[in-house]
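Comment on this:
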Amino acid sequence: MKSISMLVLALGLLITGCQSGYIQETGDVTLKDMADEAEREYFRDETAEVFFREELGMKDLERHEVYKTGDILNADFYFTRGVQRNDIGRSRDFVMRMFVLRQVYPISGGPYCRPEAEEVYWEEVDHRVYYVYHIILKSHKCGG
């Protein structure tokens, strides 16, 4: 009985150990791509904003960027302050589907099919989410 428990525990550790090496999420809010702008190869898709808002329902998405630095494909999503957890999850699901699994969407194919069609190579995918704060500065005249 004890050996069966140890076997189950060992298998559980092996499975979770393999999975954590495959997909790594960080909780570091200061994580940012520090690559120089000249080192970035941007991918632009005019249909992406409409797809994200209408097809995936990301209503609080303000903008996004997809670019490659070396062997890393970066997908940065900028949301307004009122973003809901669902929008962030949808952006993560999109990145996983298109850039990690390299699967297109059934009907439209989805945006950013060009890197896949041109067989652009990347080894890692970084998905980052930012909240955009709009600061309004008001000038007040003090004194007489």
About this structure: The beta strands are 41-43, 61-69, 72-80, 124-132. The longest strand covers residues 61-69. Residues 16-26 have pLDDT under 50 and may be disordered. The two ends are 87 Å apart (CA to CA).
